[in-house]
Structure formats: C-alpha cells, structure tokens
Amino acid sequence: MTAVIYRPEAMVSNSTDTRNTLTSKHCAASATGQEQMISQTIVAALKEGLS
Question: Is-above-0.85 flag for pTM?
C-alpha cells in the first residue's frame, strides 16, 4: 500500500495543455500491515503541516 500526501496549495499549474506539478509531497508505503501504514500516513501528513 502507498499514500501520497500533499497540500492543495502545492499544486502548481504549468499551462492549459499540460499536467500540474507538485512542489512538495511526502510518501508513505508499507508491505507489512495496515497499522504501520496508518501511522506512516499520519507522520507524512504532519510533515506536510496537515492535521
């Protein structure tokens, strides 16, 4: 399982015909269990300044 955490303000528009870019993001991944994934996702969210 993987999770990508980013603030909506971190999404920057390039132009009308291309994809947007993220200026800041944190990722969490786990192959062992759901509890570890949940705790890593919370840590990633805190690093991004989300509550």
Answer: no
